[in-house]
Amino acid sequence: ATTSAPPAAPPAAPSAAVHNHHHHATQPQPHPPPAPALLPPKVHTDAAEVPLTPARRWYLANQSVEANPGVPAGLVVRAVAFLAMGRPWEAVADLDRALRFAVRDATTRHGATTSSSESRRRVDEEEARIRLLRGHAHTACLSYDRAAADFATAAEILEALDAEDGRDSGDLHAGMNGGTNGSKKKTKSSSSSSSS
Fold it and tell me: Any residues with CB less than 8 A from the CB of 106 and at least 6 apart, and which?
């Protein structure tokens, strides 16, 4: 009788080592962790540390003008910023408005607490200061005739104020001398009357 061959054994399952090796070979490697984000630049919390560039000066002055459009100080500061940024035409426009407001408002602002002469002096000083600055703005605009007119008017105002100061100091000096001479005369007359 013929003997039949034993049944073939089923194929052996791959070992765990081979399976793990194949798994690791096909699995994508994880990405490296992202680099730490750069720290933001230091934020200046103190207003004194923030550099006042012309653009920042314009920004602050513009806020002041928008909040108080009729106050000359904000217009003058914004005009200075415009000049620093090479925009003299805008500076002239701001100084035109500042000059009108300064002349109009100076008396009403100071009249209640100061005499009329002191109030007028404040108006004159403010006008001279604005005209000098506007003269520089006109020069930057190549408007030399207008610049010369502003400079001349400012010089006249300042010369008048200087002359007024000289008269005031001269009157004070004369009053002091007159008072001294008067006291001397009074002393002399009283001594002569007592001797007689």
Answer: 119, 122, 123, 126
The DSSP code for 50 is S
For residue 83 the two structure tokens come to 């000049």
Per-residue pLDDT of the chain in tens (196 residues, 90 and over written 9): 555 555 555 555 555 554 555 545 556 556 555 555 444 445 444 555 567 888 999 999 999 999 988 889 999 999 999 999 999 999 999 999 999 988 776 556 555 544 567 778 888 888 999 999 999 999 999 999 999 999 999 999 999 999 887 775 555 445 545 544 544 444 444 445 555 4
Nearest to 74, CA basis, from 53, 58, 93: 58
Q: Enter the tokens of residue 144.
A: 């030399």
DSSP annotation of 47 reads G
From CA 136, how far away is CA 94, in angstroms rounded?
Answer: 13
* Structure-token pair, residue 145: 């005739």
Question: Which residues, at least 6 apart from 121, have a Cβ–Cβ distance to it below 8 Å?
Answer: 161, 164
Q: 143 is written with which tokens? A: 């408007």
Reported as half-sphere exposure (CB side, CA atoms, 13 A), residue 143 has a value of 14
Tell me how far apart the alpha carbons of residues 60 and 83 are, in angstroms, rounded to a whole number: 15
